[in-house]
Amino acid sequence: SNDSSEVISFFKNDYQKLIDELSENFTVKSVSFSNEVTENKSITLSDNNTNISEVFNYIDETYNSADVAATILITDGIPTSGNDPSSIASIQHYPIYTVGVGDTTSKNDIAITNIRYNKTSYINSKCVFEVNMKAKGYNNQDVILQVYDNDKLTVSKNLSIDNNLFYNTFNIDIEPQNEGKHFYRFVIKAPEDDYIPENNEKVCIVNVIESKKNVYFIANGAHPDIAAMNMALESNDMYEVSTFQFNDLDISTLSPDDILILHNLPDISAKSDELFNRINKEKIPFLLVVGSKTSINTFNKVSEQCKIADANGSFEEAYPVQNKDFKSFSTDDILSEIVNSYSPLTTHFCSYTLPSSADVLFYQKIGNVSTTWPLVAVNKDINSRSAYIFGEGLWQWRIKNYTTSENFDCFDKIINDIVYYLSLSETFEYFQVNINEEYIEDEPIIINAKLYDSNFELSNKTDVLLLIKDSQKNEYPFYLNRTSDGDYSLIINDLSPGYYTWSATCQTYRQEGAFNITQANPEKFDLQARHNELQRISSNSGGSFFTLREISNLTEAIRSEVKDENVFHYQTNKSLRQYLPLCILIFLLLGAEWVLRRRNGIY
User: Fold this and answer.
1) Tell me, what's the pLDDT at 567?
2) SS3 (DSSP) at 129
3) At what angle do helices 4-13 and 15-22 cross, to 10 degrees?
């Protein structure tokens, strides 16, 4: 920002001088902190985060506390990630001298701080957006909020600001008129003196569908797994969830528009044959939980895609291991951390055969041995989708999720992602392009595409042209790269934050879509330096606060206030043989003294 020039000048001209002065009395370590904490890194002020608390964690982990005489913290005091630095600094065993940089002046600013909304809605029904905004320095002024639906102005709302420090929460209701992805862009038209115009805009992506999907839990007896998965889906507006005991199910009512979750099925009854005959004939998507009551023989007879062999009626405990190459839907980085704490599922002791189109989310880990046997997998063929969980005990995963993170988010996301994967319509596309809808600034845009021939075999002999357009209608053409697997891929790294549309063409095929890149630089959303926080850090730790212009006094203050209180103890052990010459000399001297005393009569 505008006040960075003074900071850059300090690091360029005076920082090394400060280190040299302190080095006369101390060993000086230069540590920089931004997205990460590193030593001896050049100061560029170009990273996207400030994690002040991590500095103290780094010092604690890297150095013995008795060896740290003091810390000099040079910052504007605005953390964008991590914990409260003042609370962590107060428990350190060394004084912290803070140097405040940046502008502490309050600036006029209007911002959309957050928008809460459901990511799925339905045609001609209300989609509610809860908007949080703040304004500083605009008392008794009006501004306009505009909402664009795929770049078409949909809502214009007048907002009256009645306080110099103003906070407000209000709802915007929109009724989408057509299916598909809707990119709703919220923009506050602020006055020209708005200091941070970048925080006046947010984009919300809503998937608009025609109607809710029916999800039927069909169970071969009561089981806590059903309750756990039911709770994971109950807050999702996309689904109408019902539960049936298998014996009470009217199979004739099932249709391809339904999603089935089958637990401990099939069994040995003729009704299982009838159920799976209808599933296979109507191409009904299903999630099958293979449990202790599942008949493996019947499973192999009715399953068209997956086979289980060598089952002898015994069971084992299988822990989940995440497959890093899973591609059917995106998984969060935190997933593997939480899944590592999950309890094992009870699985059949057997071997598995999956079709080549299957995608394994979790493999089985038996004891300490990771296997290639699937624990959770999904499959997509030309006309249908299916998913398999080869074990029961999912209810324990949900409990473990809560004990690890005090929420059910990870478990609920796994179940919702699988069911959403099953809900996608299955009209086979000979040309398929996979581009996510949301990216964060600096995140690579990974694009995958597949082209099938008339025999449903992959072919990448034809060029694929990808044309990306930004909101200003600027065009960015790319050709996708051919891979050794027979498909196409491309990684794009240099697109700026904003809303983009894309079209991909290959032969006579064409696919279209859109994505949004969210600005990930939180440094731009709070520019008022917090020197009062730095003063608190110094006061709580026994240090002192300085501004950048007072830094010439810092070296002398540290020299006079920081004392070397280290006490060093040395102990040396030697054998008696090493002292033998000395002992002989002592005995000779004592003998000579005795002789002299007798000769002279002195006793």
Assistant:
1) 54
2) strand
3) 50
Q: How far is CA 166 from CA 134, 139, 212, in A?
A: 5, 8, 39
CB hemisphere CA count around 347 (13 angstroms): 25
Are 244 and 415 in contact by the 8 Å Cβ rule? The answer is no
Give the count of alpha carbons within 13 A of 201, CB side only: 17
Between 57 and 1, residue with greater pLDDT: 57
Q: Dig out the tokens for 414 from the structure.
A: 């796994």
DSSP 299-311: HHHH-SS-EEE--
Q: Rounded to the nearest 5 degrees, what angle is found at the Cα of 371, between the Cα atoms of 369 and 377? A: 135
The pLDDT assigned to 600 comes to 80
Cα–Cα nearest to 505, from 558, 547, 450, 465:
465
In angstroms, rounded to a whole number, what is the distance separating the alpha carbons of residues 599 and 490?
108
**498, two tokens:** 């904003």
49 DSSP 8-state letter:
-
pLDDT in tens, 132-175: 999 999 999 999 999 999 888 999 999 999 999 899 999 999 98
What strands lie across the sheet with 488-492, from one edge to the other?
431-434, 445-451, 488-492, 481-482
Please count the other Cβ atoms lying within 10 Å of the Cβ belonging to residue 183. 20
Nearest by Cα to 161 from 178, 146, 147, 142: 142
Amino acid at 145: L
* pTM reported for the whole predicted model: 0.54
The whole-angstrom separation of Cα 358 and Cα 406 is: 33
pLDDT score at 27: 92
Whether the per-residue pLDDT at 551 is higher than 80: the answer is yes
Q: Answer yes or no: are the C-beta atoms of 299 and 266 closer than 8 Å.
A: yes
Long-range contacts of 14-23 (CB under 8 A, 24+ apart): 14/551, 15/43, 18/551, 18/554, 18/555, 21/555, 22/555, 22/558
pLDDT at 330 over 90: no
Tell me the β-bridge partners of 188: 145
